[in-house]
Amino acid sequence: MTASTVGYGDYYPETVPGMLLGVFVIFTGLFLIGAIVGRITEQILKLKRSKGEGRLPYAKEDHYVLIGWSEEKSRATVEELLQSDPSRDVVLIDRLAHAPFSHDRFHYVQGDPTMFETLAKARVERSRNVIIFAPVGETDPLKADGQTLIIATSIEHYGRSANAAGRDIYTIVEIVKAAHEQNFAYANVDEFILSQQSTSHMMAKSSLHKGSSQLFMQLLSDSYGEDLREIAPREHWRTYGEAYEELKQEGANLIADRKDLGIIRKLDEPLPKEARLFIICDDSTYARIRDDK
């Protein structure tokens, strides 16, 4: 006889006192097992609820961190990152009551992005980079960029603190007004994206060169065949020309080293070991190039 039932091969009592004791043991066992199962279920539901409310800290690293949620820009960015980079998670920091997005590789942290406690919960110091979106609904460029600048400065200070062990945190910031760019440079922001100006430039280019918007969209999204990708220099490449020719034979176009798009005019120049090369190719070509180092 076990604490839950009487099974085949179990010993069982034959006397009345023994039977009464057996009934007591069985019912007590069922009660205890039910209580344990109920407690486990309660903890699972509590854990799930806490995760949905953004109360749980993130435990991994080399992830993408997004600050600020909007149904258009932020959602599209999250979906693009998850699709383009299946090996990394996306962590969102916002003050929403519940997670606005659901995915196995998406984690939500609720809190103030200017507070070290919130940045620590998102493991910002261990992230691949941090994207800071301009606040939604703020029409005044001064206030919008001011809020973004405070967040960027807080992240910079957090990176220098003992909590982050003095790590350099790569930040990408959306700016509303171009004149404010120099202020973000003082906060050591790595990249600036002008939200309104980017759209205006794309509209103007499309008007001047019909069909060019499709080219821009293809490079910006992973939904198309060809995409913009980053690779490290191979050890045997001595010049940009050697890298250009070898990549061309493999089906990729070398277009830039960091933000320098003039590689085609410097093919005979030495290729620095610390170069960050950007190419345009499809998924299969990129996989071959990445594996053949």
Automatic annotation (TrEMBL):
GO BP, one annotated term: monoatomic ion transmembrane transport
Localization per Swiss-Prot or TrEMBL: Cell membrane
Superkingdom of this protein's organism: Bacteria
SUPFAM superfamilies: NAD(P)-binding Rossmann-fold domains (SSF51735), Voltage-gated potassium channels (SSF81324)
Membrane-related topology note: Multi-pass membrane protein
Flavoprotein among keywords: no
Transmembrane regions listed in the UniProt entry: 20-41
Residue ranges annotated for the RCK N-terminal domain, each copy included: 103-163
Gene Ontology cellular component list: plasma membrane
InterPro entries from the UniProt entry: K_chnl_dom (IPR013099), NAD(P)-bd_dom_sf (IPR036291), RCK_N (IPR003148), Trk_Ktr_HKT_K-transport (IPR050721)
Key words of the record: Ion channel, Ion transport, Membrane, Transmembrane, Transmembrane helix, Transport
Domain Potassium channel: start-end pairs: 1-44
Pfam families: Ion_trans_2, Slo-like_RCK
Stated name of the protein: Voltage-gated potassium channel
